[in-house]
Amino acid sequence: MSTSEDAANFPFPAVSKQAFLGLVWGSLAVSAAFLLFRAYVRLSVFKRFFTDDGLLLLAWVLLLTTASLSQSMIDDLYLIFGVMVGMVPPPTNMLDIVWRYFRRTFAVSLLNLFSLWSIKASFLAFFYKLGNKVKGHKTIWWTATVAWFVGLAISVGVQNYKCSIGTREEAIAFCTTKSYGEFIYSSLRLQAACGVITDAFIMAIPIKILWHVQISARSKIGLMVLFALLLFTMIIAIIRVTLSLRNKREDDSWIYVWAAIEAAVGIIVASAISYRALASRERKQSAYTGYTEHRNNLRYEASSQGNDRSAAHAGKPTSSKSSLGGKEDAVPLDAIGVRSDYDVVPAG
Q1: Which residues fall within 8 angstroms of residue 99, CB to CB, at 6 or more apart?
Q2: Cβ-contact 32, 60 below 8 angstroms
Q3: Which of 87, 300, 304, 346 has its CA 20 to 30 A from that of 314?
Q4: How far, in Å, CA of 126 to CA of 270, rounded?
Q5: At residue 71, does pLDDT exceed 90?
Q6: Distances (CA, A) of 152 to 13, 108, 120, 305, 341
Q7: What pLDDT does residue 132 have?
Q8: Mean pLDDT of the 228-253 span
Q9: Percent helix / strand / coil, the chain, rounded to 5
Q10: Residue range 284-301: mean pLDDT, rounded
């Protein structure tokens, strides 16, 4: 948040206090439901958790913390903006309120940043084993990983520290200038660019697998859906920055609401991938059940035919048709094959 000599440049928060809390906690609750579904799939299919699960849980815990901090600072947010646009008179302890707000917004911004990049790390951990048999997979994976480290370092480096470290007077003196508002615009754009570029590198991993591996049409469709979901997270990041910086000065309500939504969407997308593993397991179980029933039927029919032949040799009457039909319809058992299609599901 920043102030300005020209109060008209500041929009009053576009998101109401009730909508702010509803969107932040609502997105958190939805992401929690998807995270629980992911945990159920992991335990049902693999009987254990993996590195990407831990990273995604870390992202959700960080998001929960930012939601709690956002609720604790919401009254200060609307009071400060109300004072700046002339809607309410400044209270006697205005400087203390501004100083407290600066420190809490810094914590929210930094924790939300680490939540987003933990989600990206979860995708990298997921894709590490998905295509480890594909030629060139590790090269592109390590390229995406380097992009992740560089993007995170830049995003943390351009974070605003002057408004939360040091004395109250120094912080307020710097953070009430026009140049600080311009710094906020530049840093948000740079952080968004680093996130989108890193997402593009991560998205190249399933594209590499899809392009070079001969797999079933169903598996290709699954990878294409995954590609679309990753693209959706990039779109959300672009929307967040566009809506937050649509005025001459930043709207903190949009910044923190969309930051929470972006992180929640990332968790939802990462968790939705687990449905692929659950569906694959159910298809294989269904195929195995069908194969077992078919094999048992063949054994029963072969046994019945053998009993009829034994009865004929003993001089007993036999039925005119065997259970496998007449001679012209009979099929040798060694000519019967069972086709099984398998989908490769990554172990983590």
Answers
A1: 168, 171, 172
A2: yes
A3: 300
A4: 9
A5: yes
A6: 29, 16, 10, 71, 41
A7: 65
A8: 75
A9: 75, 0, 25
A10: 46
pLDDT exceeds cutoff 70 at 5: no
Per-residue pLDDT at 64 exceeds 60: yes
Written as one letter, the residue type at 75 is D
d(CA 41, CA 38): 5
Angle at 206 between CA 215 and CA 342, to 5 degrees: 30
158 burial class (0-12, 13-18, 19+ CB within 10 angstroms)? Answer: middle
Q: Alpha-carbon torsion 20, 26, 29, 33, what sign?
A: negative
**Whole-structure pTM over 0.90, yes or no?**
no
Tell me the C-alpha distance between 69 and 277, whole Å: 35
325 strand-pairing partners: 322
pLDDT for res 88: 84
Residue 156 has a pLDDT of 94
What's the CA gap between 227 and 125, in Å, rounded? 16
The distance of Cα 89 from the centroid of its chain, to the nearest Å, equals 43
Provide the 10 A C-beta neighbour count for residue 288: 11
Alpha carbons 107 and 240: distance in angstroms, whole number: 19
pLDDT value of residue 308: 52
Residue identified by tokens 């998905």 is: 130
Q: Which residues contact 238 (CB under 8 A, 6 or more apart)?
A: 192, 196
pLDDT at 159: 87
